Each structure stands twice: as structure tokens, then as C-alpha cells.
Amino acid sequence: SYQKTDKLKADHLPSVLYNIYKRPMLINQGYKQWLFDHEGRRYLDLFAGIVTVSVGHCHPKVVGALQEQIQTLWHCTNIYRHPKLYEYVEQLTSKLPGDLKVVYLVNSGSEANDLASILAKAYTGNLDVVSLQSSYHGCSYGLMGLTGTQSYRMKLNIPAGYYHTMLPDPYRGIWGGCRDSLSQVPGACSCPGDCVTADKYVHQLSELLENSVPKGRLAALFAESIQGVNGTVQFPKGYLKKAHQLVKKYGGLYIADEVQTGFGRTGDAFWGFQNHGVMPDIVTMAKGIGNGFPMAAVVTTKEIAAAHAGTAYVNTFGGNPMATSVGKAVLDVIEEEQLQQNCKVVGAYFVEQLMQLQKIHPIIGDVRGKGLMLGLEFVVPGTKDPLSVADVNIIFEDMKDMGVLIGRGGRFGNVLRIKPPMCINKQDVDFAISVLDQAIKNYTS
Ligand code: PMP
């Protein structure tokens, strides 16, 4: 029963592990875009286990691939060759452009980013890494420095050599105003070429590289192509391309964290960085890669991977037969069911509907995103002041009670994050919109 888990949680789980809902439920079952609780209640899942269930809960093809593998071989480590690993790396790299052809298979996004950071340092011979303010790249000890969000850092001797550049946030950034022309939100940036605000943020990065990072020590810039955890922030057009050029000039690599934006979620491209016309040196991926099965990857060039040679390297679980079978099935389903295209079409429809709601509810300050990676920011009506977390929670909890699970985040905790399994359809959007509309009405009335 729920009460029993209350006590077990208090007795045996760390207090830092929090439940997102105040009036939670036990999730017992999932199918495609639906989750079911201990009382058989059904929820539309718009958060996909934090942007992870890419092709749908318990997708039959993925379940089938895993079942077949479980009966054949679970594990042997990659010190032996097993066929699934080879099939998978061939298929995965066929999805990556340019020379990004060497795959390290690991088990989580944090692990992938840790390894990417090691590779960048080994290849460049440099020590310092830059990421964006308000970013989240993981919470291992090493990554507490990389993650640009204060609340994830403990009072420890956080590893040195991490710098954070200003988040190019069109809605809340100090040079905000110019919306992302890459966004599918209509009425975006009208700059004829790259957005003028992009240049201002790039200039700020150049000041950091020139004046703060010690000369000749830059190993890499880490960036997502849409910042996920802190509110689905899209960058002004041209920012990533120019930031990349600049970092290269200072001897560093560009590492694309595709943990949230990869695998077709942004609709127009399989990888988020492709929307920005940039070619990373290293790409990290996790979450959607395994539809919930714990797996992740770092993909880079032969030249960069060669810098690792001569060091002993073992990853016990990385690329094991179960993970690679699941990974292959996920890629097959994305293709067979045209889920990238679905993200584009259903995502555009979702944005349209959210913008209709924005017209009648001044509490909605901003709607943004691309494909099925969307965000909606609540403000105090008539201002840009973030709505308080307590007030956002009223809407958030109410939506759950009406059958819709959604993400929450942003620097001020006032952003609803919509990142569902990529198989949702327009009817699901209509249902979600009616629930959101009702929850806002309940809150404001
Ligand atoms: N990078 C990004 C962009 C993420 O959103 C996350 C997880 N929220 C991570 C890295 C870390 O992934 P994991 O939780 O699998 O370690």
C-alpha cells in the first residue's frame, strides 16, 4: 500500500531523494504514452521518466528484443566479442554525421559526460572545461563542477577547472528579446542572419576565454542544443555555431550533450546539434537511447579516441547484450514508426494549442521548444516575474489528479516541461490541453 512505502522511504531511502508529487501514487504499469497507478488510474505521461521513454513504455518490439536476449545471453563484458554489440555500433554510427564513428558504451548520462570530459582533456592536453550557466550535465563528483547549477553542488572541494558562461536565454537573459528563429514557435526572431543577441552572448564567452580561463588551458565547451533541466531554453540562432568557432580558436573541443535532445525528439533532425549547423567533436547520449534501460554512449572521432590509447579502460556493463539489443530495437522503432516525424508534427500542433491557451491565460508568460521538447513558463500575470513554486505546484498537482503527468523545472521552478514518449498523438495533445486549461482555471478562479 502507499502508506507502507511512506514508512519504507523514510527508513531506507535518502532524504535527498524526493517525490515530485506531494500526493504521490505507486506507478505499477506502463504502456506506450500511458502509466497506471496502484488503483488502476490511467495517466497520460508527458514527462517520459525524465525524457527517457522515447518510443513508449513497454513497447512490444523493445520488450520482445529484450525477452529474446535474456534467454540467450545476459552478460559477458566487452572483453569478449558478442554479435549484438557489433550490430548496434554499426547502426548507431549510421545515425551520426561526419567522422563521429567511434562509440564508447556506458551506463548513464553522468558517466558519458565524465568520459567525454576525460577524452577532451586527453586529446587536447588541456585541463579546463566551460559549460553554460544553469546547465545540468550530471551529478557525479567530477560533474558537480561541470553542471552549471548551484543547487546540485554540495559544500565539497568541487574539482577545479570548470567555468560557466552566460546562458543565452531569449526570454530571461539580459539581452533577451530576440526569440529563437530555430523555434517552431511562430513570430520568432526576425534577424535576417544570425540573431544579434547570439553575438552578445558569444562576446561574453570570448571575454571568459580571454580573461578567466588560463591561457592555453581550454579542453572543451559542453553544451546541450536546447537546455533541458532548467526550463527548455532555446538559444538564439547562430549562438552554438559561433561559440564552437570561438572554442576551437582557443584550442578546445565542442562536446554536444544530446542526453535529452537526441534520437529525433526535436523533430527536424535526429540530433539537436544538427538544427544549429554545427559538428561536435564528441557527442554524449543517454536517456532515450534505451527507452528506460540503463545505457548511454559517447561517440567521437577515431583521432580523439586515439588519445585514450595506452590507458587501461574497462566498463563492465557498457554495451552488454541486453543493452545493445534494446538499443537496436529502439532505433528500429524510431524508424519504423517515423517517430522523429511524429515529434515534428505533433510537437507543432502542441505548440499551436499552447499558444491558444496563452492568449486566454496571462499566467502563461512563454511557450517555447522544438519537436516534443517543449516548455511553458508561468509568470505573475502582467509581469515577467516567475510564478512562485507553491503556486505552480497547485496547477501541477491538479493536472496529475486529472490524469496528466508533466515535468517541472526552470531556474525558478516555474516551467512546465513537456517531453513525452515520442509516440503521442494529437488526441493526447487535446486531452493534455483541456486538463491544463482546467487546472489553470481552477487555480485562477
Ligand atoms: N545531461 C543532461 C542534459 C541531462 O538532462 C542529464 C539527466 N537529467 C544528464 C546529463 C545525466 O544523466 P544521468 O541522470 O543518466 O546520469
Automatic annotation (TrEMBL):
What reaction does this enzyme carry out catalytically?
oxaloacetate + L-alanine = L-aspartate + pyruvate; L-ornithine + glyoxylate = 5-amino-2-oxopentanoate + glycine; N(omega),N(omega)-dimethyl-L-arginine + 2-oxobutanoate = 5-(3,3-dimethylguanidino)-2-oxopentanoate + (2S)-2-aminobutanoate; N(omega),N(omega)-dimethyl-L-arginine + glyoxylate = 5-(3,3-dimethylguanidino)-2-oxopentanoate + glycine
Task: Tell me the compartments it is located in.
Answer: Mitochondrion
InterPro entries hit by this protein = Aminotrans_3, Aminotrans_3_PPA_site, PyrdxlP-dep_Trfase, PyrdxlP-dep_Trfase_major, PyrdxlP-dep_Trfase_small
A GO cellular component annotated for this chain's UniProt record is: mitochondrion
Give cofactor(s), names only: pyridoxal 5'-phosphate
Q: Which family does it belong to?
A: Belongs to the class-III pyridoxal-phosphate-dependent aminotransferase family.
- This chain belongs to the protein called Alanine--glyoxylate aminotransferase 2, mitochondrial
Q: Tell me the gene name.
A: HaOG217198
